[in-house]
Amino acid sequence: MNPMINQTRSYLTAKFDAMGIRPQSRLGQNFLIDLNLLRLLHASGNIESHDVILEVGTGTGSLTALMSEKAAVVITVEIDPVMQELAKQELFGRKNIRFIKTDILKNKNKLCDEVLEIVREELNKPSFNGEKLRFKLIANLPYCIATPLISNLLLTETPPELMCVTIQKELADRIVAKPRSKDWGALSLWTQAQCNTEIIRIMPPTVFWPRPKVDSAIVRLALDKKRRNKIPDLKFFNEFSRVIFFHRRKFLRAELCSAFKNTIPKSRIDEIMDEMEFDTTTRAETLPLKIMQRLCELCRQELLKLPENKRKIL
Hints:
The chain is an alpha/beta fold. It folds into two domains: about 10-230, Vaccinia Virus protein VP39 (Rossmann fold, 3-Layer(aba) Sandwich); about 235-310, Helicase, Ruva Protein, domain 3. It has helices spanning about 10-20, 35-45, 60-70, 80-90, 115-125, 145-155, 170-175, 185-190, 225-230, 235-245, 250-260, 265-275, 290-305; strands spanning about 30, 50-55, 75-80, 95-100, 105, 110, 135-140, 160-170, 195-205, 210, 215-225. The strands form three sheets. Strands 4-3-2-7-8-11-9 form a seven-stranded mixed β-sheet, with helices on both faces. The chain is elongated. Helix 8 packs antiparallel against helix 10 and helix 10 crosses helix 13. Helices cover about 40% and strands about 20% of the residues. The chain has 13 helices and eleven strands.
């Protein structure tokens, strides 16, 4: 079995020059070359022998190699066939790695069925140590897929128990944001309704090759199953989270009237506003998670009074 890949800048440039290839910015290929931070990303995932790990963006396989030392299996997804072949060569002999060459996103609202099926297949296998297998996402994510990947994984029937990923700092700020801050929005609401979120480390562009134009962060999302189970309808809450912040500066009443046009009468929206003790100047960006969830449920109950084909959020 090959030793751990020393993914330094000199290693990468020499390897890429020998192969006659260059990193592709359109695929978000920014390689983490600070080995201490790579180890921190790995350590923050708390990998154990009963973990099924999903990695998106195999790259040269540096993180993949680290994770395969302990995990039950690492399912690593790479869209670039050249990069996947390079990783396969570097990781030859590691039997607990499954390579998938595909785009993790079928579209921005749906994940690749093939990948999800392989995850389910691995989770249904017996654990050699008798412990229940756990699903985790640990990856140095391409920036362009981070938001839809995290959001859609939380919409699946079996979301990761832990997500530990490198993403843009701007996105990390939104995930951990608090109400009344500029970053509090749909992603904050959606992730915090199901997870405990934290930023592990802020990272400058210099720790990557090629260097991105923005700061990055290692962010950790730990699933809180009790919190998630309190959401009556995940799909509806996901849609509600997005539309309620669609026009951030709009007053809440106007946002609700727009979202539920032709489904909830304005008179009923006014009653809901009164019931929630909102005034005419209330904005969504000021409301904490529990209040948002209560508001969402009141709106959902109104839609349930309608025929199924008319229960729509615009």
